Amino acid sequence: MSHYQNDIQSHARPGAGKPPMAIKVRPHAQRRDDAWAAVSAQEPGGDAAAHEPASHDLSQRVARVGIIGATPTGMALARELLDADIPVTVYEPARETLDAATASVRSACEASRVAGELTPAQRDRRVALLAGTINLHHLKDCDVIVDAMGAGTDVAGGLVRRLNELAKPGAILMACAATCDIDQVASLARYPENVLGFHVSDAGAAQVWEFVPAKPTSASTVATAAALVQALRRPPQESATHTNA
């Protein structure tokens, strides 16, 4: 078996200045389940539609993404989501850090308007789609929650237990695979099938998203995460519905 169970190449058109994207799904050492066959890429060749992952029909609709931590990684992801017309709520317990991060996004949007990259209406919409909060409870309406703090497993354990109390039942938790044990995080989650690890890196000119499933992670969770990430490279009008309802 290949080191990766699936290599899903995104053929979404990159936005201005954005690199192409590849998505990799790492197989779980203890998992051998036929449902994962649905999370795969089509063979190269053919028309553009043929390049869409077969997982597309398993994905769930994502109306809002929550980001835990106003870190450089978290805010870079927030900017990409806003560019794709996806509403974002950033949770950051330190008020000064949160205010500085959200102000930076507003300044960047204004700079893009001045440079002619955005119209005033596009700038205003991006700003309106961004919410910042010091209250974790405000992530209760998010369909996907991304832990951008890079907390270790001990810290993440407390975070997962809090999310168990407030997150909606179908919400997906994406945790940094480099800083925590995804299987352990899943064992603490109320809905372990909704937990997914991730890692983002650059490979040459491409940005690579690697998904690291826990043993109970569902194929639908991976499919939803893949569809969301692919939406970051589509024009806003194409990503308005993001993923299937």
UniProtKB/TrEMBL annotation:
Keywords: Isomerase, Lyase, Multifunctional enzyme. SUPFAM superfamilies: NAD(P)-binding Rossmann-fold domains (SSF51735). Residues 65-235 form the 3-hydroxyacyl-CoA dehydrogenase NAD binding domain. It comes from the Bacteria. The keyword Isomerase applies. GO terms for biological process: fatty acid beta-oxidation. GO terms for molecular function: (3S)-3-hydroxyacyl-CoA dehydrogenase (NAD+) activity; isomerase activity; lyase activity; NAD+ binding. Residues 1-32 are annotated as: Disordered. The keyword Magnesium does not apply. This is 3-hydroxyacyl-CoA dehydrogenase NAD binding domain-containing protein. It comes from Pseudoduganella albidiflava.
